Amino acid sequence: MEAKFNLLSFQGKYRVLHFTWFAFFMTFVVWLGLGPMLPFIKESLQLTDQQAKVLLILNVALTIPARVAIGILVDKYGPKIMYSSILIAGGIISIAFSLAQDYADLALLRFMSGFVGAGFVVGIRMISEWFPAGQTGIAQGIYGGWGNFGSAGAAMTLPFFANFIGDNDGWRYAIIIASIASIAYGVIYFINVSNTPKGSTYFRPKKSGALEVSGIGDLLLYIFMNVPLYLALALLTWKLSPANINLISTQSAWIIYAVLCVIFLFQIGKIWQINYNLLTRRDIPKQHQYKFKQVAILELSYLVTFGTELAVVSVLALFYVDWFGMSKLTAALLAGIYPFINLVARPGGGWISDKIGRKLTLAITFIGIAISFILLGFVERDWSVVIVVLITIIGGIFSKAGSGAVFAVVPLIQRRFTGQIAGMTGAFGNVGAVMFLTVNSLVEYDGFFKFIGLCAAITLALILLFLEEPKGQMVEVLDDGTLEIIKVT
What we know:
Elements: H1 12-32, H2 34-45, H3 49-61, H4 63-77, H5 79-98, H6 103-113, H7 119-130, H8 133-165, H9 170-192, H10 216-240, H11 250-275, H12 292-324, H13 328-340, H14 342-356, H15 358-376, H16 385-409, H17 418-442, H18 445-466, E1 473-477, E2 483-487
Helix pairs in contact: 1-5, 1-7, 1-8, 1-9, 2-3, 2-8, 2-12, 2-13, 3-6, 3-10, 3-17, 4-5, 4-7, 4-17, 5-6, 5-7, 5-9, 7-8, 7-17, 8-9, 8-13, 8-14, 8-16, 10-11, 10-17, 12-13, 12-16, 12-17, 12-18, 13-16, 14-15, 14-16, 15-16, 15-18, 17-18
């Protein structure tokens, strides 16, 4: 019988949980601190509305391929070294961003900063190594929810630093302080954690570079689900081209399109190389089989839940300023409420998944997302700010609980692929962010909210029709050939 979950403990697996959620917290301070700081940056450098919105899109773009790549690397090298590296490298790039003097440098460095968001994937693998299936929902929820609170932490602290310093460079000093803290914590994390409990085996894929799947249908679906990752990057390129903001030349845009096509074809080749034997083999051991449709539905679900979170937290401060005429500081504080609820909502989604079932929990959360954001789509400029903030909070509760429910399932698909599955699922969260933020740049805020609600309704139908509740056990093969049984229920 599993021991009672004891969040107040700082021993053993709980110690790793606390160190890891705070690592995630720090990555989000560095990465998503852009949102609440953008009004200050916009005023200081006299950016146009479109330039500011493009910075938001750039901020989440690189996270798409980075989460896939980091998922592969964490399965191979382990979460300890990967998280420390991301915290340190991310802090250095963030300092460079704070020193940028023109928009081109801002854009490039903000694009590079996007890889910091891949840190989330690392912790999913770390927590899955330390907590059993009966506690994975609540543990992953606390990790994700409390770590996500880093965006609220940034919203509640960085604007105060910038406002306290008071001149045009106040935002630079605020970001530098956060970046130094990230670098320092990268060292602290490396010293204080290990990849697995003492005596446990860290299972690694036999082949790296792509997932191993269990059948021809799974292989085709796997290839198809890679397409949105590249389409999102192509969409970003189009947004930066002369057809829109004109940040890059037409020639550069076509070069990027060509590179994306080459990388996509290379990825298909890698997937085929690792899985080609499926054409002739029908004897894949049962313990290595899983249904890729499970992964695909989780990817689409996270596209909505986390994509919504990233997009809304990025635009909320500007939404309050533009539609209701608030001061920058007041808007930043009110926008900070949205990520603040991560402290409870995302762990709550994981905990409820452990208690009543993972499919049912996902369905409930998506009903809430669809209703609340469609309702937000009817907001008028003369509405009460209190009502608007309240509806936003309700939508945030459901979307964040939905993220917790998604990652209550991810570690239960196939242990040795947890990093890669988490990486692909996490990448779709950023695909959603790019998609939603692009829509935001093309329409008014009411259209932006309605679009989110519609996407949630469509995904709800897919969950109800195709998602299967994880049951039974996973079996992994140790190096000596013996089997280790891992319960998923």
